[in-house]
Amino acid sequence: MVRRTLLHAALRAWVIQCWWRSMQAKMLEQRRRLALRLYTCQEWAVVKVQAQVRMWQARRRFLQARQAACIIQSHWRWHASQQRGLIRGRYEVRASQLELDIEILLT
Question: Where is the signal peptide (predicted)?
Answer without folding.
Answer: 1-25
